[in-house]
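@channel sequence for tomorrow's demo:
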Amino acid sequence: MTSIDFYTGADDPLDVAARIVAKAWRQHGHVRVLTPDPATTAALDRRLWTVPATGFLPHCRLASPLAAETPIVVDDVLDHDGAACVLVNLHPDPPPFFSRFERLADIVGRDGASADAGRRRWKFYRDRGYALQHHALEPGS
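structure tokens (generated this afternoon):
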């Protein structure tokens, strides 16, 4: 069963996502990121080219011909095919395919709409019997 970690109170959800992606890639080898829209996908794509400043996170989008060979895939498409151990969720709804991953990292921003959506996702997973862990992020995280 998928283990689910909620990271709440993110000042900058893209920064938190980039840090989680880097750690998950080092530990598990393959990571998927679901974003809510093309603009967020593009913003995270740019972020992963520059963070960390001294490293590189090999990533692409689902439509890329290299997607099957690339360890990190970032996209807003609601059906992520392919192998991965970790799914990072920035989408306001539970990903329809989350249960095929070993781990789900769900990121919740500080604003009201993000917090409300995060509470709905928490309830969705809890009501289905998933093990949930909560990580309250400090301001500036």
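heads up for whoever presents: Strands lie at 3-10, 31-34, 59-60, 72-75, 86-89, 103-109, 132-136.
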